[in-house]
Write a structure and sequence with these properties.
This protein is of the alpha+beta class. The chain has helices spanning 38-42, 61-78, 115-118, 174-188, 223-228, 252-262, 271-286, 330-335, 338-347, 354-367, 426-441, and strands at residues 2-4, 15-23, 32-35, 46-53, 85-89, 94-99, 104-111, 149-155, 161-168, 220-221, 244-250, 295-303, 321-329, 370-371, 375-379, 397-400, 408-414, 417-424, 449-451. It has an eight-stranded mixed sheet with strand order 13-12-15-17-18-11-1-19. It has a six-stranded mixed sheet with strand order 2-7-8-9-4-16, with helices on one face. The longest helix is centred in the first third of the chain and has 18 residues, at 61-78. Pfam families: Transferase (PF02458).
Length: 452
């Protein structure tokens, strides 16, 4: 395992923004408002990804931009909510999407660097990648609402390019975004049908009437209760502060050795569980207020599509994920066996059944709360953005774009192994790394080096 920090020169990719525009549906459709489930309502923040492509003689970046823009015009007929705008339904007191065909954003940019100059670190999320995904179109007049989704094509000096997407998470979850990208890719070909038929019926996840909350939901907290607790933790807080970035890289051998250390014969351990357990332990024990608290709660995303009865279509385009909460005492995190943390995480999603999901939706209907915990570990290991086939081929690399969040750890595939992205204030990061390397030193077979 290796610790990597961003290369300073890669924080600036020397990007020039050449064109900002709006893309509109190619056909008119009836204006309507789209219902947003109580899960959708939670995720009102941006999610950004970057896809990198090698130079393709038949597809120079300017042709890619043209093809991509035409593909967007086509898919916005079906995905009309992407070209819409959020609005508050005052009568119901909840957000909806006004499908008003106001447009998605589209940006064309260029970098002075080649992909080779970005170098070996192209395979890791980097602060500079924020230049590859614009969230706002600054050329719009003040009275024009910003788009909910912006695509950006950035050409590199070598002829390679990146396609970035920044979307309000309220539009779709990770799997919904992948389905959308598959359909955009299909429309970039000449005459191809949609790759996947999307399911846009979000009322499938409507709360029951009357609500029936039949389970306790400690992973959620009423917003009024959160305010009354003052400094109570919320992973959805986004306080602006100076953060340091580290990427912890695990080879396939490292993962096998972590699983050996956990030694859980009774359950099947996932790569996610062992990496998340180590990240959670280091984060909890490095926190400033760690000594003042008894319990730490980790949240991770659970796909509910296969857990409902009947199951949701895999192509459901809205948010079909719940944040499952698992907790451990600080005594367990510091002195307990690593295997116990792995088991806690492995068992954490088992209670999320069809009835539990319905109870969650009903709880949110009553309380309008948010997920509650200390840390989110979000996995990109199985989303498969890098498997999407465009006319110009698959991406050579896809990654989350680094954002300003210290309470979220991203786990993603990299170089045949796994990377874990951590962002923390300097003193917390120092403690986090010390705990990480202390764990490694006590683990016998594990061999980590530090590359800063």
């Amino acid at each position: 395992m290796t610790t990597l920090s961003p290369v300073p020169s890669m924080q600036d990719l020397k990007v020039t923004y050449q064109d900002y525009s709006l893309v509109f549906p190619s056909l008119e459709s009836q204006r309507k408002s789209i219902f947003l489930s109580n899960i959708d309502q939670i995720f009102n923040f941006n999610l950004s990804i970057a896809n990198f492509f090698k130079p393709k003689p038949d597809f120079p970046p300017e042709i890619v931009a043209k093809r991509l823009k035409m593909a967007l015009e086509k898919i916005l007929v079906s995905y009309d909510f992407i070209a819409g705008r959020l609005k508050l339904n005052d009568k119901l007191g909840r957000l909806e999407i006004d499908c008003n065909a106001a447009g998605a954003g589209f940006v064309v940019a260029s970098s002075e660097l080649s992909l080779d100059e970005v170098g070996g670190y192209i395979n890791y999320p980097n602060l500079g990648y924020r230049q590859l995904v614009v969230e706002r179109l600054d050329n719009l007049a003040p009275e024009v609402d910003q788009p909910l989704c912006v695509f950006q094509v950035t050409s590199f000096k070598c002829g390679g390019f990146a396609i970035g997407m920044s979307a309000n998470h309220i539009l779709f979850d990770g799997l919904g975004a992948r389905t959308c990208l598959e359909n955009i890719a299909s429309q970039a070909f000449d005459g191809k049908p949609f790759a996947v038929t999307p399911c846009h019926n979000r009322r499938i996840l409507a709360a029951r009437s009357p609500p029936q909350v039949v389970f306790p939901h400690p992973e959620l907290i009423d917003l009024n209760q959160l305010v009354s607790r003052g400094s109570s933790p919320s992973v959805f807080d986004c306080v602006q502060e100076e953060l340091e970035l580290r990427i912890f890289k695990f080879s396939s051998t490292d993962i096998a050795q972590l699983k050996e250390k956990a030694k859980l014969d009774t359950i099947k351990m996932s790569t996610f569980a062992v990496v998340a357990a180590l990240m959670w332990r280091c984060k909890a024990l490095s926190a400033d207020n760690e000594k003042d608290r008894v319990l730490s709660t980790l949240l991770n995303f659970i796909d509910i599509r296969p857990r409902l009865n009947p199951p949701l279509p895999p192509s459901y385009s809205g948010n079909a994920v719940l944040l499952a909460g698992v907790s451990a005492t600080y005594q367990e995190l510091e002195n307990g066996p690593f295997s116990k943390l792995v088991k806690i995480i492995s068992d954490g999603g088992k209670e999320i059944t069809d009835e539990y999901v319905k109870s969650t939706l009903d709880w949110l209907e009553v309380h309008r709360g948010i997920p509650y915990g200390d840390y989110i570990v979000s996995s990109w290991l199985r989303i498969g953005y890098d498997e999407v086939i465009y006319p110009w081929g698959k991406p050579i690399y896809t990654c989350p774009v680094v954002n300003h969040r210290k309470d979220i750890c991203w786990i993603f595939p990299v170089d045949g192994g796994v990377g874990a992205l951590v962002a923390l204030p300097a003193q917390e990061m120092e403690r986090f790394e010390a705990l990480f390397h202390k764990f490694v030193a006590s683990s016998g077979k594990l061999h980590l080096t530090s590359c800063l």
